[in-house]
Amino acid sequence: MTPDDITRTFLDHYHRHGHQDAPESSLVPPPGDPVLFTTSGMHPLTPYLLGRPHPGGRRLANVQRCLRTTDLDEVGDDTHLTVFQMLGSWSLGDYDIVTSLRWGFDLLTDGFGIPVERLHATVFGGGNGEGPDDTARDTWTGLGVPVEALGEDNWWSNGPTGPCGPDSEIFVWTGDGPPTGTPSSDARWVEVWNHVQMRYHRHPDGRLTPLPHSSIDTGMGLERLEMVLRGDRSVFTGDGLRQWVAAVGNWGLRDEDLRVVADHLRSAVVVLGDGVRPGNTGRGYVLRRLLRRALTVLWRDDPARTLDGLPPELYADTLRRFRQPVDVGALHATLVDEERRFRGLLRRGRPLVDRVRERGPLTEHDYHWLHDTHGLPRDLVDGLLAETS
């Protein structure tokens, strides 16, 4: 199934169960939101999970582009991406977790054709004053799916405050031969979907108070599901990433380096597509950091490599997949200009860092001086130090 097929199958399934399409949001949250980027499908729906009536009703579904910097150091493995698409469904005070899990099981087995023998679930086993989620456990057992009860890993929240609750996660076996072990003991069990019971609001002091109504929030990564349905071992073989891997591979990069550069450049295109521009603070700095991390890897053994040679069709395909009507020429010009700026910064920064290091190991004062006076962030300074160590 292509990503378009998967999305259509997902939305059609929930439309048959009375769900309306929730509008997709930008990666950039509205003014006043404390987070830099939309990190999950539920993030734009937070006010409605807290009790406000949604104009679309109490049953919703959509596909939402998301960005997570918390997983940045894991990018380069088989399953993590910085920017990805999330398939989501919501019950805003309507049906319960039993219904959500049963509908999810039907979609995975009938809609996507995953044999029940390749499924494993985890549920909240209790902790922090909350008892185990016996309802979710009994539902999975009744459907013939093995269950593992875990602790904090199955308590979901979108941050230190806000809506939260017990989470049931669904895993698919990706190994050869019959499934063995459990999700916590064998990495060949890959998580594809979680179903969260949004029961509580966590306050800044850590208190939990019940929400006006209990809701269900589910999220399933499109790229990871595509990997599982293809029978592949890596998200980088999917339709939306394969072209990036091929283009980056032309530079001679391999393995983790290839994946990091492909992910970061693709992510930068999507961030640019939502109107963010490179800068020294906030969202602009996240974008700048993605590009500079990619360029640092790219130039590690050949400083002559340049983004100028990437085909415009690559940008156009990514923007289409993320539903972003952006001028490709302007986006390309921004990338090339940021590359030029970074080359200049490196040219000026190397002798500065060398001069400071001649006095001995860098101190916190040195780092602050290099950043505040010369615009050299700490991670860049550390990279320059590593080059000559």
Task: Quickly list its features.
globular, nine-stranded mixed beta sheet, alpha+beta, 389 residues, Ala-tRNA-lgiase_IIc, aminoacyl-trna synthetase
Summarize the structure.
Its EC number is 6.1.1.7. By secondary structure, the chain is α+β, with helices and mostly antiparallel strands.
Topology overview:
Elements: H1 3-16, E1 20-21, H2 46-49, E2 59-67, E3 83-91, H3 97-111, E4 119-124, H4 134-142, E5 147-150, E6 155-157, E7 162-173, E8 189-202, E9 208-221, H5 222-230, H6 239-249, H7 255-273, H8 282-298, H9 312-321, H10 328-357, H11 364-374, H12 378-387
Descriptive report:
The protein is of the alpha+beta class and 389 residues long. Helices cover 41% and strands 19% of the residues. It has twelve helices and nine strands. The chain has helices at residues 3-16, 46-49, 97-111, 134-142, 222-230, 239-249, 255-273, 282-298, 312-321, 328-357, 364-374, 378-387, and strands at residues 20-21, 59-67, 83-91, 119-124, 147-150, 155-157, 162-173, 189-202, 208-221. Strands 1, 2, 3, 4, 5, 6, 7, 8 and 9 form a nine-stranded mixed β-sheet that branches. The N and C termini lie far apart (48 Å).
